[in-house]
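#struct-help
A.M.: can someone run this one for me? Single chain, 177 residues.
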Amino acid sequence: MTNQVATFAGGCFWCMVKPFDEQEGIVSVISGYTGGHVVNPTYEQVCSETTGHLEAVQITFDPEIYPYEKLVETYWTLIDPTDPGGQFFDRGESYTTAIFYHDEEQKRIAEESKLKLEQSGKFNKPIAVKILPAKPFYPAEDYHQHYYKKNPMHYNRYHIGSGRAAFIESHWGKKHE
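D.P.: on it. Structure tokens below:
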């Protein structure tokens, strides 16, 4: 079986790379922008909230080692799935959440997983994550790629200071640093 691609928006893309990047079967994780109407937007354009793009990660993975179902399950544990206005300290459309599916099988898996989470009673608010067809994905500028490796001290301060680390630990019982 050949490698496949998955795309997730979960707020600041810096915090979405490391948890996937360290898993066996993940070939690559790229930070970027998707879902908008501007070709090849810059970080500044996306942050202006005028392009319609979301910060996202595009993951190339080997489905025999790390299946799509597992990617979706991991994704839920990295975000506040009930927040429709952004993630943690990052507010606005560009920081909202979405699963961008690349085929009907990914759509089915994402929808079933979302329904299962909604029915679990884990959260007392509706699950706000959108499930949308994949649109063109534009890699972010080089300084955003693998930020946790390039700037580990700043990344860790941000991950904790944004409230993401505490939310993950309190709701999922594990740490993603």
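A.M.: thanks! The first strand starts at residue 4 and ends at 10.
D.P.: also worth noting: The beta strands are 4-10, 26-34, 54-61, 86-87, 90-91, 97-101, 130-133, 137-139.
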